[in-house]
Amino acid sequence: MKEFEQTRAWLLEKGIGEADTGIVLGTGLDEILRHIDVIRSIPYSEIPHFPVSTVEFHKGHLIYGRFANTYLLVMHGRLHYYEGYSMQQIAFPIRIMKLLGIKRLFLSNAAGGVNLHLKKGDLVLIDDHLNLQGSNPLIGTNLPEFGPRFPDMSRPYDRALNNLLKEAAQLLAIPLQQGVYAAVNGPNLETRAEYRMLKLLGADIVGMSTVPEVITANHMGLPCAAISVVTDECDPDNLAPIDIGEIIAIAKKADQKLTRLLLSALQIAPVPHIEQT
Prior knowledge:
The chain is α/β, with parallel strands linked by helices. It is built from 6 helices and 9 strands. Helix 3 (159-172) links the parallel strand 6 and strand 7. The chain is globular and about 55 Å long. It starts with a helix and ends in a 9-residue tail after the last helix.
C-alpha cells in the first residue's frame, strides 16, 4: 500500500483533489475534454509510480475537472497489456482513482464488431465480457485494503449505471446496442479463424483493453460501466487489411455521440460533491 499512498499524497499536493466519478478514455475518444472544466492536468510521466502510456493515440494525462456539479478524474490515455506492462501496473491508476474518492467508473474503448449486425460507428454498451488475455490484475498477493481474495464477477458491469446510460441514450435518441466484449492481448488484429472462434464463444465485439480495469473495479466494489465504439467490421469471409487512420477517424466521429451520452448521464445522475475537511 505504500506506493499507492505516496502517489495519492503527491497528487493531492499537486492540486488533484477528491473526485466523484472516474472516466477512462479509449483510442481516439477525447471529445468530452472539450466540455468539462479542467482544473488540473498532469502527465503520467510526472506522477510517482504511475505507468506511462506508450501508444501514439493515447496522450497519457490524468485530468481533474468538473461537470454538472460532479468532480471528475479522467484518464486521457489508458494502459494496455501489449505495451509490456503487468496487469498490476494496468490496475494501478484505477486503484489510485478509488483512493481519491471516485464512487463510479465509466470506461470507453474502440472495438471490432464480431457480431455482423454491428456497423462502423455503432455504440455498444458492454453487458458482460470474456477475459482471453491469459492473465488477471488480481494474480499475486491480495491487498485486503482494496478487496477480497475471491471477488464475485456475476455482474461485472453495474446494472444501475448501465440503466443510466440506456436512459440517457433514449433521451437523446442515440442508438445504443448491447453486447459481450472479448479482451485479447494484441497488438495484432485477429485472423479469420480467430474471429470465427470469438463468434462461437459468444463475443459481439473484441478489443485489447477494459477488462483488467473492470476486474480491478469489481475487486474494490467500485461500480463501473463501459461503452465500445465499433471501428471495424470483423467479417471473416470478407476481411480486408485494417487502416489505423480509418479506425481513428471512425472513433472520432462516433465520439460526438459518446460524449453527448456520457454528459447526459452525468447531468441525469450527478454525484453531489462533498468537500473534504
